[in-house]
Amino acid sequence: MILGVTGNIASGKSSVCRELARRGAPVVDADQLAREVVAPDSPVLEQLVAAFGEKILKADGSLDREYLGALVFSDPSARERLNAIIHPAIAALSVQRLQQLRDTAPLVIYEAPLLYEVGAETRVDKVLLVTIDPAVQLARLMERDGLDEQSARQRIAAQMPQDQKIARADYLVDNSASRAETIAQIEELWPLLMGELLNS
Q1: CB neighbours of 115 closer than 8 A, spacing ≥ 6?
Q2: What is the distance between the alpha carbons of residues 169 and 155, in angstroms, rounded to a whole number?
Q3: Which residues are annotated as a binding site?
Q4: How does the average pLDDT of the chain come out, rounded?
Q5: What is the pLDDT of residues 4-23, one digit of tens each?
């Protein structure tokens, strides 16, 4: 079974995925795949340069993710151009990696921040959504990324609202409180996931 794990920015997806990995489930990370597809001299990076110009490159020829991120977060049409280039490449690579792992592991985790936004839920069997209280999310994002409030709110607004994702998810883990409380929810969820494996 492939379990998609998603959630909005600063919700704590990665910490939830680490807990699932600790219980034996291999994780495919869409953000890591995104870094791989834009490696120097890759076709995807060449397409990005054609779309956004040489200024998105660092001196060593690698992608300046911070610069490109700032560029697209404030410009919806630029974000659409970026997504149209990068997401098909991530999709192809994710299908390949997930299939390889599916052949060897009963439960595979696909950690994908934009699972719903890019239609990637078709690549998974079930979806676990990591939810977070909006005020906690804002504070964590500002602290984690060193952003001012306006920049943090822009990044949050760039994603699908959490309520819409809740309506579509199979499982929820609320990561608004302590790590111990989040782990307790994962411990409750784990037997349900194992039950799904027996029924699939």
Answers
A1: 4, 6, 30, 121, 124, 127
A2: 22
A3: 10-15
A4: 95
A5: 999 999 999 999 999 999 99
13, 6 Cβ separation under 8 angstroms: yes
Question: Which amino acid does the sequence have at 47?
Answer: Q
Count of structural domains within the chain: 1
What are the binding residues for ATP? 10-15
User: What range does the domain containing 29 cover?
Assistant: 2-199
- Percent composition of the chain: helix, strand, coil (DSSP 3-state, to 5): 60, 10, 30
pLDDT tens digit string along 82-131? 999 999 999 999 999 999 999 999 999 999 999 999 899 999 999 999 99
CATH for 81: 3.40.50.300
**DSSP line for 113-149:** TTTTTTTGGGG-SEEEEEE--HHHHHHHHHHHHT--H
Beta-sheet strands, E only, within the chain: 2-6, 27-29, 108-111, 126-131, 171-174
